[in-house]
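Lecture notes, part 5. Sequence design as translation. It can be helpful to think of inverse folding as translation between two languages: the language of shapes and the language of residues. The source text, in structure tokens, appears below.
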């Protein structure tokens, strides 16, 4: 969350951020009033405590002096102060809870150089990579959802049968490709200095709140069991939407040392989100699904290092696509598409040539986001109590957090199936993945099973 000091000293900066990010459910004037009333009560409480301490110390002295009447008056005044103070503290606690809840709904302030725009149409393309030497492609390129079923490496009907829409089976070489990508990505990031973490898959509400998923995006999460979204306690559990949640919260309410930073963790997890395709081809295939694999990179850094680390993190995520030889572009998010928690964000979008979309590149096809590289500054740290001590004798300060996907696996699978497909319907395996696929150089597909795989005229 933002600091209360920023709210008090620069309310118009906060108001501008609300407008730029399109947040309409926050009454900022009311939040400011809550803070002012809370501070006034805290001040009155401090004054009453000071008076009560003076009265308490005077009671003993008056009794020693034998002035029982004055001592009794002091006792009565002390009791009045105690009752008044209890009333003030109760009201202050109520205001604190209301203020905390309101602060959780105020978004991060965009950095000054973030492009101002209303929505994704005003994002800024920064550069493209890998388009100078494109491989020869079939005409037309078969979309991954058709090719995946033809090769029997993707099975959408059976995925829907066992779990509903938005789920799929990866089979045979399709499953091998997903596993290979995960292992390859993890190895690349180990070379970059990342320490592996394999976190719990369910997370509690405190963790979801710590990284900014709650309370604003509760409806996108999958509860484990009959969980009340309004009950933010340590007993409820949710399937994680991204490894960012458990890995960032590993150090919640802890103080790290300066020598620990920068701290770089990576984690492979399955991820679960209710958001799925709403129309058109987005409902087909594995571009938007409820469960997907992803390797996530999470960084904890000193504040003065976060901007530099942001660009290093972007390069670390790009390295996966460079080695796979997949064309991609870098897109900077404008304020209206920046996201609730981010101060700055770049998306990495891989080129998938199978579906010719209106917003695709000149070469046809479309862009698929495979990574969002984000700088949260101290926004998550304030929510999760993530601090570090610059020197052992100094006060603890909030650190900065960053993360980026390295990468989202299903969309990379889409790009490989479409970009590396051949005229005969097979798919070349990118060279870096071949060792992870038992030396396979080509995905040739498998034989379908069951009566549904037999033509109607061939059935017995």
């Amino acid at each position: 969350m933002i600091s209360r000091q920023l709210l008090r000293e620069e309310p118009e900066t906060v108001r501008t951020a609300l407008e730029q990010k399109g947040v309409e459910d926050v009454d900022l004037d009311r939040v400011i009033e809550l803070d002012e009333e809370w501070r006034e009560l805290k001040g009155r409480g401090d004054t009453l405590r000071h008076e009560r301490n003076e009265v308490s110390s005077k009671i003993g002295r008056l009794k020693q002096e034998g002035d029982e009447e004055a001592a009794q008056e002091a006792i009565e005044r002390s009791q009045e102060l105690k009752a008044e103070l209890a009333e003030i503290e109760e009201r202050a606690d109520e205001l604190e809870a209301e203020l905390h809840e309101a602060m959780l709904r105020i978004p991060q302030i965009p950095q000054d150089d973030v492009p101002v725009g209303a929505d994704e149409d005003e994002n800024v393309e920064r550069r493209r990579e890998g388009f100078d030497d494109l491989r020869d492609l079939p005409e037309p390129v078969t979309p991954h959802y058709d090719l995946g079923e033809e090769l029997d490496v993707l099975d959408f009907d059976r995925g829907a049968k066992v779990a509903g829409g938005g789920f799929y089976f990866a089979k045979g070489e399709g499953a091998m490709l997903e596993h290979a990508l995960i292992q390859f990505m993890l190895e690349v990031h180990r070379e970059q200095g990342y320490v592996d973490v394999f976190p719990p898959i369910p997370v509690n509400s405190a963790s979801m709140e710590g990284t900014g998923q709650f309370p604003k995006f509760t409806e996108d999460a999958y509860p484990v069991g009959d969980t009340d979204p309004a009950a933010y306690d340590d007993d409820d559990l949710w399937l994680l939407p991204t490894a960012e949640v458990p890995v960032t919260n590993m150090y919640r309410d802890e103080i790290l040392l300066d020598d620990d930073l920068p701290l770089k963790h990576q984690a492979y997890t399955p991820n679960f989100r209710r958001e799925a395709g709403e129309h058109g081809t987005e409902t087909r295939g594995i571009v938007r699904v409820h469960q997907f694999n992803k390797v996530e990179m999470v960084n904890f850094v000193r504040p003065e290092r976060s901007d530099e680390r942001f660009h290093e993190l972007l390069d670390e995520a790009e390295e996966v696509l460079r080695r796979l030889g997949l064309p991609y572009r870098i897109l900077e998010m404008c304020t209206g598409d920046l996201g609730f928690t981010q101060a700055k964000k770049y998306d990495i979008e891989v080129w998938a040539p199978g579906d010719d979309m209106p917003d695709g590149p000149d070469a046809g096809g479309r862009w698929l986001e495979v990574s969002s590289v984000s700088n949260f500054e101290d926004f998550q740290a304030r929510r999760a109590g993530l601090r570090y001590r610059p020197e052992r004798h100094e006060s603890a300060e909030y650190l900065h957090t960053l993360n980026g996907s390295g990468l989202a696996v299903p969309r990379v699978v889409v790009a490989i199936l479409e970009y590396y497909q051949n005229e005969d319907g097979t798919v070349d395996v990118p060279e870096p993945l071949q060792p992870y696929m038992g030396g396979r150089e080509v995905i040739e597909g498998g034989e379908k099973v069951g009566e549904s795989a037999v033509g109607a005229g061939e059935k017995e």
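The translated text above is only one of many valid answers, since several sequences can fold into similar shapes. Residues 277-281 have pLDDT under 50 and may be disordered.
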